[in-house]
Amino acid sequence: MIRTLLTRATPPSPFLSPLRFFAPSPPALTMVTLIVATTADPASVGPAAALLSMPGWSPGPSLPDGIESYANGDVRMVQHGRSIVAEDDLDRRWEAFAGEPVAETIFLSRHTAVSSRPALTVHPIGVPHLKEGDALVAGGRPGWAGPPNPRIGPWLRLLKKIAERQGLVPEFEITLEATHHGPVVSTPTMFVEIGSTEEYWRRQDAAQAIALLLWEGLGLGGADGVGNWHSNGDSKKVLLGLGGGHYAPRHMDIVLKDGVWVGHLLSGYSLPMDDPSQKKEQNQGAGVGGTWKQAIKVSYEATKSAFPGGVILAHLDHKSFKSWQKNAITKFLEEQNIQVGKPSDFV
Description:
By secondary structure, this protein is an alpha/beta fold. Helix content is 27%, strand content 21%.
């Protein structure tokens, strides 16, 4: 009846004219999770194929450069044929192409280690310690760290449970890795990897464990997903790891506890610090050089952006630092108003 009154030839009643300003709002755009796989990597092919064999998937459109896509609810998988670290801005490219904003990005990849030990790993990405002109051996952008996916901590714990359930432990180590490599992304991001040699990259049981991690972690089977920051309850403390080796053992001891969230993890090699005792006499008052301050600041800001409302606590691997390094870092954290947390602060 209202539509009839508004379309009459006679002027509408002034009492009806306000209705012109109450047109329905356009529907909100669906936020999607973007999974990125590559056919160039067997440790990416296996988990992608295992996940796509599970119910609910349908083919999606191909991106202009031939990247294939698949859809399942609000999850999208894209699969390209290049190095996993060579395709920058896939989250932005998907939104521009499909009109769907990307809430988070998850990469499926291989892990390589000198030890050749079989492993299933998760980690944030970035090269915050590099400066302009430094070689980018594995993608990224100098001085950049991607927002860490809040699922990293909860998914490490879920991955451990799945691997134990599937009989992969103790053969496979379940571990965090420190922040490293690209590609460049803008959304909260994590890598999920199989290591550490071709024999294990092609293991179907390892691929199935990763597929189950995504299936259960994203709630594709109908249950609630795991690691959604916006429904995390009362837990607000987020670990920013500083120091230690690539596998962050002292940080991992904390992250394995239920309810702990984890942001960036900067191992010692991502905190380059010039020993002041090695400086020339005229430069000794300049403080501790190197890009360590840049790395901490960039990683802190990226972590803060990924955990809105969170309390970011820097956790130091004290034994990995010399006294002058620890003193310099502690002073800088204080200057930047970055809180420091002890292991007991995260439980």
